[in-house]
Amino acid sequence: MISDRKLEHLLICKNYDVNYKNKSTGFEDIELIHKALPEVHKEDIDLSTDVFGKKLDSPLFITAITGGHPAAKDINKELATVAENRKIGLGLGSQRAAIVHPELRDTYDVVRENAPNALILGNIGAPQSDLALDAVEVLDSDILAIHLNPLQESIQPEGDVDARGYIDSIKEICETVDVPVMAKETGTGISCEDAVALQKAGVNFIDVEGAGGTSWAAVETYRAEDRYMGELFWDWGIPTAVSTVEVVNSVDIPVVSSGGIRSGLDAAKAIALGADAVGMALPALQSAYEGQDALNQMVDRFNESLRIAMFLLGVSNLEELKQSNLIIKGETKDWLEARGFDIKAYAKR
Question: For residue range 131-177, what is the model confidence (pLDDT) as tens digits?
Fold first, then answer.
């Protein structure tokens, strides 16, 4: 049953190491150029953005995590409360469970009840065009996210591995709903070629959700009787820093960088690479189990470390941060050069 699977995912993410083993996000290869003469007041630095249709106090999104099991209701309440109070974006896990099993709807209803003004992202799978209108209605979503998860489906014991018609289904969803649509991966990244195809299909935003953070192959490995395939593909994917560069240089729609983002310093690097916002999932889930104090501390640390990074770069807002000078080195440099991207353009802008 869908609900049982959702609970298993929550418990595995809470109790097991599901991080990539031998592949990082690539942000360690991004060096921001320090300014000894910042010429800004740190306390005047503006972290806000309105790129996604609502004014947010920070570019932090709590990205799709949970829903679809009674145990998720309290977690979603905690996440919704912090999203409302701190004016950040919140994405929920796949809503299919609530649509197919109406008795689970309250695990999603709790979000708008506690976050009437927050930026809320609904969530369905690429082939689920028939669920799009219901998904928007269930959450009163501001944005509908379409998740792409071929790796997870490949490892999942009950996975759907027929990916024919994804683009046509995404086009249909974009034409059907009356809210903007975001396409998002689930931890293995999006290439420039796929980003172009997604924009042509009509999506308004892209969340790269790259490799280096939570591995959903790992999550499914813990559920599988035979762990061979999960272990083999545990580290599959495009590193988040690489995916961010590939996508922002290929489309002209707003981009969220997520997948292993763990601090405001990571976020500063992602935004300097061209992202408009960043997403965090696992840290928010772990904090939600501890309650509001832990969640607020997570947001405080994120915002303060982002503000310090911006101060050390001498920038006063996110648009200025996107123009900051940086150096790309190591494996990230090698990857991007092999793919034909001009990394020197970032060094002196």
Answer: 999 999 989 999 999 999 999 888 887 789 999 999 999 999 999 99
Beta strand pairing call for 205-207 and 181-185:
parallel
What would you measure as the largest C-alpha separation in the chain, in angstroms? 59
Q: Minimal CA–CA distance to 60: which of 244, 284, 252?
A: 284
Cα distance between residue 73 and residue 255, in whole Å: 29
Q: How far apart are the C-alpha atoms of 307 and 301, rounded to whole Å?
A: 10
Q: Tell me if 247 sits within 8 A of 198, measured CB to CB.
A: no
Residue located via tokens 């418990």: 11
Q: 276 with 244: CB under 8 angstroms?
A: no
Q: Which pLDDT score is estimated for 2?
A: 47
Q: What is the pTM of this model?
A: 0.94
* Closest to 327 (Cα-Cα) out of 269, 275, 271: 269
- Between CA 186 and CA 281 the distance in angstroms is 10
d(CA 289, CA 229) in angstroms, rounded, equals: 30
Measured from the Cβ of residue 36, the count of other Cβ atoms closer than 10 Å reads 6
Question: What's the confidence (pLDDT) of residue 69?
Answer: 67
8 Å CB contact between 233 and 217: yes
| Secondary structure (3-state) at 286 | helix
3-state helix, strand, coil in the chain (%, to 5): 50, 15, 40
Per-residue pLDDT of 95-123, as tens digits, reads 988 898 888 888 889 999 999 999 999 99
> CB of 87 within 8 A of CB of 56?
yes
